[in-house]
Design goal:
Elements (H helix, E strand, L loop, with lengths): L14 H18 L12 H41 L4 H7 L11 H12 L4 H18 L14 H17 L1
Helix pairs in contact: 1-2, 2-5, 2-6, 3-4, 4-5
Protein name: RiboL-PSP-HEPN domain-containing protein
Organism: Fibrobacter succinogenes (strain ATCC 19169 / S85)
């Protein structure tokens, strides 16, 4: 296996940080769309509600992408640390046994998440759901230009509820 040489930026953020910024941004959006805002004087009620719903939906998508990017970074950092430290637990051994020529190019779904799923370190059905959610992340990250068929669209709170226990688990394993 190739020697692992990664300089971590230490700029990745925690799930809690993303959740806090999501709430602050949603509060600000709600304040902005108060009916007393002079920008909306000429709007019909339907126009106002449509714009507000579109803005809220877009903010949900942006923070969902941020949350899933945070999860991906956590998984990759965990993976590279397990390889570099040569940990002896079953997940670390399985990750090393992948024998990838360049571990930095490991596929999140095929290598990292599949290892967590196959080793049985986390509930299998739950890992399948996490992998499906990452189809949504790819759709968001690549501009949403295709019809999302096999992914699952969740709101921010549902994504957080799905991902937070998993990230806590891998950090404690």
């Amino acid at each position: 296996m190739a020697r692992i040489s990664v300089s971590f930026s230490n700029q990745n953020v925690s799930l809690a940080y993303v959740r806090e910024k999501y709430q602050v941004s949603m509060d600000a959006l709600n304040d902005y769309y108060q009916t007393t805002n002079p920008r909306f004087i000429s709007y019909t009620r339907q126009e106002f509600e449509q714009e507000f719903d579109e803005s809220r939906d877009e903010l949900e998508k942006l923070f969902s992408l941020d949350l899933l990017s945070c999860v991906e970074a956590s998984c990759r950092v965990d993976y590279l640390n397990r390889l570099g430290k040569k940990l002896k637990d079953p997940v670390s051994r399985a990750m090393r046994s992948l024998g990838l020529p360049d571990p930095r190019k490991a596929s999140l779904e095929e290598h990292i998440l599949s290892t967590w799923q196959n080793v049985g370190a986390y509930r299998n059905g739950y890992m399948s759901e996490i992998k499906r959610v990452f189809k949504y992340r790819h759709w968001l990250a690549h501009g949403r230009y295709w019809v999302l068929r096999n992914g699952r669209i969740l709101d921010f709170s549902s994504l957080y509820a799905l991902m937070d226990p998993f990230i806590s688990y891998i950090r404690s394993y």
